[in-house]
Amino acid sequence: MNDYVLKRRVTKVIYHVFTFLFAFVMIYPVLWMALSSFKDTNEILKTAQNLFPEKFTLKNYITGWKGFGGYSFGIFFRNSFIIAGISTIGAVASSAVVAYGFARCDFKLKSLWFSCMLLAMMLPFQVIMIPQYILFNRLGWVGTYLPIIVPQFLGQGFFIFLNIQFIKGIPMDLDEAANMDGCSVYKIFIKIILPLIKPSLVTSAIFSFMWRWDDFLSALIYLSDPLTYPVSYALKMFADPTAGSDWGAMFAMATLSLFPIFVIFLTMQKYLVEGIASTGIKG
Amino acid sequence: MKKKILSLLIMTAMVIGLLAGCSTKKASPAANTQTTEGNSSGEKEAAGDEEVTLSLVWWGNQTRNDLTQKAVELYMKNNSNVTIKTEFTDWSGYWDKVSTMAAGGNLPDIMQQDYAYINQFQESGQLADLTPFIKDGTIDTTNIPESILDSGKIDGSVYALSLGSNAPMMAYDKEIVEKAGVTIPEQPTIDELYEIGQTIYEKTGVQTYFDGGINYIQYLARTTGSYLFDELAKGTLDSSLLYFNSIAKFSDTDFCIPANLLVEKDPEIVETKPIIDQSTWNDLSFSNQFISVSSTAGRDLGICMWPTTADATTQPEYLKPSMFFSIAETSENKEAAAKFIDWFTNSEEANEILMGERGIPINTEIADFVKSKVDNVTAQVFDFIAKVTEIAEPIDPPSPSGFSEVEELGKKLVETLRYGEINAEDAANQYVTGSKEILEEAAK
Amino acid sequence: MKKNSMSPKRKRTIGQIMNRKEVAGYVFILPFLIGFFGFIILPMLVSFGFSFTRFNILKTPSFIGLQNYITMFTSDATFWKSFGATLYYVVFSVPLRLIMALIVAMLLVKSTKLSGFYRAVYYLPSIIGSSVAVAILWKRMFASNGVINAMLQSTGIPSTIAWLGRTDTAIWTLIILAVWQFGSSMLIFLSGLKQIPVSLYESAKVDGANGIHRFIKITLPMLTPTIFFNLINQIINGFMAFTQSYIITQGAPRDSTLFYTVYMYQNSFAYGKLGYGCAMAWVMVMFVGLITFILFKSQKRWVYYEAER
């Protein structure tokens, strides 16, 4: 018995040592970036191997935050929150609804629509960019957030597919039992399915927020007023291959821009823990 | 099933028709404005104090964005009836953005323009002819040299106004050069550079960089008074062979920086240029990069012209517009846009803010005015440009469509050559035949 | 279903009609249909139409039939090179990334005090995405005087390899980047693992099955829908990978890291051949579509859905 306890402890220690070391390797590059943001721009270039700055400076944060042409990063962050926040709500909600339709209902042409969804996922944005721009321009949406946000409310292939996989993992007996009790399909979706796919909803939310936060291409194409630029797009402007880049300021702002996603992840990942596993539905 | 395919095809055809329709529609108002050009001058007086909103778009970094925005604000303060909506972006995103805008018939009134792109935009009728505004004095050109105006000319009309001058330059590390005990001539020949490189490597162990991309092939063509794109269109080998031979001559030695290092020390990005970390003692680029290269390197750099050939019959060095402003053909406020460009180019108050950040001001008086206010490094560039101005031959005409692809082909062949997988002669042959095909295809 | 709808006389209320699965299905997927018909199908068809044209964005397209497709397959060596590089990338990065993600997810599925922290740490690399900062970072790390070589040297291997400058190693720096950013797949595996009912493990424990046994008999089969999802997605994403190649290597050296999408993008924008770019896009859609189709067909053999039992 003593042996057993010892063995358990050793495995536990090994587990933690291993995960910790491995974690360090994983975050080394991120650490490097974060710490570099406190280095002088020239020091970043010359002493790439050093993790810690020779001279700790906040200069990069000050010049970086100033932004461009009088538009500070405060504005860019606010815009990113608006875009990513609203898009995420839209994408998570609409994708869950659509996924339920695909996973649990039988209707004509279902496989055709499903294939269309996959097809849309495979098409690189760059080639439909021009026609889409013309379309949105005709609608008078260019220069506003509408072309970026509205499509998010109409279901995103990746999240739809993800939710489908999860809904398919829920035993049919549950639906049938509820149906016997006189629940409508809609009620089943809201009362039974939604709570059970919480992990995939949370995952969708994390991804959606992160992708919208990082996305600069649609901002580049559709936005015109610097007052509406998001962080991802503003970050690109520190780098100019021909006229010189302020890497220090870019690293500083890039590091700052990680925080919102990181905080979202930390708060959301707790909910991943509660899945079917904890409710123990299947007997 | 057949029905389905048929309906799909019909739909596609309709959609294409729709798009083609919208681009022809786009062209027709452009044609109209050209014929009514005479009327627009009549409207001018009436338009004097009217509320005007202009859109202005450029690419740039933090410095340029700040300075330009400041200048724009000053202009709006002085001209309370004008509102200028600015947009700025990074270089690589810029062209995606403006070509998408152009495809949507939505170009901003004033756009920053590059020498490599101006032809494409002009050819497709996107740019307004600025000649009437120059003739009627809206854009004052009294202090602007003819040759600089010419650089924005296509088929006899001015479509873009240069925002500053630039010239091909080689930057070098003064300290290393001194240590090796060599002197760098104002314009070395390729053979001289070869010997200098060898000496420096023997004395200090620092390597040499030698290439200037397609600009350098054009440069070499200019040494014989020839125009590269004429040669390529005809399939003539001369300048291309000279170029690849020179590249091979250097890359065969051990004093030249090896190809595999050039991937990580990319000479096309200021921060990674091999001269920055003293992997090499020299760098070939354009003079507007001198300031950022100097400040990034944090050392004293010298400046000279690109290497020419020993038997050059004409001077290859030239002045190049670093960038332009042009006005969109679709703009409804061409007059107001031209006024702004005039102010941007010719006024002391604007250039006191801009400080030659886009290149040496093209108005000679303004250039002198700005020079008195700049720091030593910038003054070095002013002096260099002054020296080049004395000897410069006119720049090659704007590059034809297909330029980017020809440029990329050259880069790839140089890489292949440096990796030792092709010889100079084959590379030159492949370059010329490949380029000919590309240019023919692009002209269709 | 059919019988129900045939049953005469009984007047159905709107609620009843809406509750028929046939109708409900369309109600549920309505947002998708609006989006698809509103914003996707037209641009999609237009791009398909463009693929039969010679089209510089700034000019009017002209119809050239199958010429783009013919050029691509017969005389464009770079096309094949970029296809090969992408295929190589997908073949190595996708399995490695998924295996890595699964292993880490298995390690982190236990709720210990630190698991939240570990999850965050392992997810961190995926957060920084493929920004310009990553590009600089990666170039610096794999530089001849970079951290990777320094590490190798400290273990006694005298390495001065310019990893990014060799045609055989450059692509691996991108593969490693992909594997390093396994966070998204890990997260999906984590949610998948969480969905497996604990009771299954408990009864297996009672039966005396050991860890490996439980993994093979319970975890793996129950996880197949998630594995399937990750696989499909990673394959699609792998073929669509763009930024890594575009911002880090730009295809160098010698096109060994020129991704398909990057070459497509160069053609569409830099070279003014949007028609050719669209044709390339559709060739890729067909190819990836075919792989996806085969995978979907293979589902019956290895993917286990609780609902279809």
Characterization of the model:
The complex is a heterotrimer of chains A (283), B (444) and C (309). Chain A is an all-alpha fold and 283 residues long. Chain A contains 15 helices and no strands. Chain A folds into 2 domains: 1-66 and 238-277, no CATH class; 72-235, Orthogonal Bundle (MetI-like fold), CATH 1.10.3720.10. Chain A has helices at residues 2-36, 41-46, 59-66, 73-104, 110-122, 125-138, 146-149, 157-168, 172-180, 185-196, 198-214, 217-222, 231-236, 247-273, 276-279. In chain A, helix 3 (59-66) packs across helix 14, helix 4 packs across helix 8 (157-168) and helix 11 (198-214) runs antiparallel to helix 14 (247-273). The radius of gyration of chain A is 24 Å and the shape is flat. In chain A, 53% of the residues are buried. By secondary structure, chain B is of the alpha+beta class. Helix content of chain B is 53%, strand content 11%. Chain B has a 5-stranded mixed sheet. In chain B, strands 9-8-10 form a 3-stranded antiparallel sheet. In chain B, strands 4-5 form a two-stranded antiparallel sheet. In chain B, strand 1, helix 3 and strand 2 (82-89) form a beta-alpha-beta unit. Chain C folds into 2 domains: 1-50, no CATH class; 71-308, MetI-like (MetI-like fold). Chain C is built from 15 helices and 2 strands. Chain C has helices at residues 2-6, 14-19, 21-50, 67-74, 77-108, 115-127, 132-141, 147-154, 170-180, 183-194, 198-206, 211-240, 243-249, 260-270, 274-302; strands at residues 53-54, 62-63. In chain C, a hairpin with a 7-residue loop joins strand 1 and strand 2 (62-63). In chain C, helix 3 (21-50) packs antiparallel against helix 15, helix 5 (77-108) packs across helix 10 and helix 6 runs antiparallel to helix 10. Chain C starts with a helix and ends in a 7-residue tail after the last helix. Chains A and C meet through helix 1, helix 4, helix 5, helix 6 and helix 8 of A and helix 2, helix 3, helix 6, helix 7 and helix 10 of C.
The percent of residues in helical segments of chain B reads: 40-55%
Q: List how many beta strands of chain C DSSP finds.
A: 2
Please identify the oligomeric state.
heterotrimer
Between the first and last Cα atoms of chain C, what is the distance in angstroms?
21 Å
According to DSSP, the number of beta strands of chain B is: 12
Major sheet of chain C: order of its strands?
A: 1-2
Rounded to the nearest angstrom, the distance between the terminal CA atoms of chain B is: 37 Å
Q: For the largest interface in this structure, which chains are involved and how many residues does each contribute?
A: A-C, 99 and 105 residues
The CATH superfamily label of the largest domain in chain C reads MetI-like
- Mean pLDDT metric of chain B: 87
Q: How much helix is in the residues of chain C?
A: over 70%
User: What integer is the average pLDDT of chain C?
Assistant: 86
Shape of chain C: flat
Order of helices and strands of chain C: HHHEEHHHHHHHHHHHH
What is the CATH first-level class name of the largest domain in chain B? Answer: Alpha Beta
Uncertain segments of chain C are: 1-9
* Integer count of domains of chain B: 2
Which secondary-structure class do the elements of chain B indicate?
alpha+beta
Number of helices of chain C: 15
Radius of gyration of chain B: 24 Å
